[in-house]
Design goal:
Blueprint (H helix, E strand, L loop, with lengths): L1 H6 L2 H19 L9 E7 L9 H17 L5 E7 L6 H11 L5 E3 L4 H14 L3 E3 L17 E3 L5 H14 L4 E6 L10 H12 L5 E5 L8 H12 L3 E4 L1
Parallel strand pairs: 1-2, 1-3, 3-4, 4-5, 6-7, 6-8
Helix pairs in contact: 2-3, 4-5, 6-7
Organism: Caerostris darwini
Keywords: Membrane, Receptor, Transmembrane, Transmembrane helix
GO molecular function, one term: signaling receptor activity
């Protein structure tokens, strides 16, 4: 989460916005470049408890745009929509922006269940999408659905590769994975699930794993750790 906050610093955003616009939007608008404003649409949740809430992201985008304008860059307009972190309402706002012709570049979404459908639509709309989210390894495959998606925060699959190197270093072979996930399936899966999912894939989908909901007071951690240690044979297990 700290890295997500850093990636939306004004200085980094200025560079990212400039590069994205110059390579994608400008090539699609070969005529009247100096007259047509570039429209940046920020898609983020309005929940102020989240580290990537709208009120934290939009000011950085505005500052980046103002910086580029002072440097003689092309005029840009910024608008935003509250995705509510909803896989229903988030994509609807993206449809609204596209159908109204209000966006040349999408910044966000930042919630994975909003990002997935919007990123698939963007490749059909020829609308570039730039996000600090999307670490799930599903987004590693650019074709055919995510070809216009640019992720600034890397991928969880890189964590899987790091795990393999650690195991090789210490000659560990038997691994068990223990991670937090929500019992309430309407919430979706947790970041822990997606993170260790890439590790599970890197390990050949053979490792023992067990999930638990850390928000529930009824979890028996002692029994759970005993079960995991037996399946890892005391060698190595990952807690996330």
């Amino acid at each position: 989460m700290k890295f997500i906050r850093n990636i939306f610093s004004p200085e980094i955003l200025s560079l990212i916005i400039w590069c994205t616009i110059s390579t994608t939007v400008w090539s699609n608008k070969a005529q009247n470049l100096d007259k047509t404003p570039i429209r940046l649409a920020v898609l983020a949740p309005g929940d102020e408890n989240l580290p990537f809430a709208l009120h934290k992201v939009v000011p950085a985008v505005l500052y980046a745009v103002q910086t580029l304008t002072r440097q003689g860059g092309r005029h840009m307009e910024v608008l935003h929509r509250d995705t509510e972190c909803s896989s229903t309402y988030g994509p609807l706002y993206a449809f609204e922006l596209y159908n109204s012709g209000l966006a040349d570049v999408l910044l966000g979404p930042l919630c994975p269940y909003v990002l997935a459908p919007v990123a698939r639509y963007s490749s059909v709309w020829e609308l570039p999408i730039l996000t600090a989210a999307g670490q799930n390894d599903n987004f590693d495959y650019k074709e055919p659905h995510y070809r216009l998606l640019t992720r600034m925060n890397g991928s969880y699959s890189q964590i899987g590769l790091i795990f393999l190197q650690v195991l090789k270093k210490f000659n560990w072979e038997v691994v068990a994975l223990l991670f937090h996930n929500f019992d309430d399936r309407t919430i979706g899966n947790s970041d822990c699930y997606f993170t260790l999912g890439s590790v599970y894939t890197a390990l050949g989908r053979k490792s023992f794993y067990k999930d638990f909901d850390e928000t529930l007071p009824t979890v028996n951690y002692e029994e759970m750790l005993k079960e995991v240690s037996q399946n890892a044979r005391g060698k190595f297990f990952s807690l996330y």
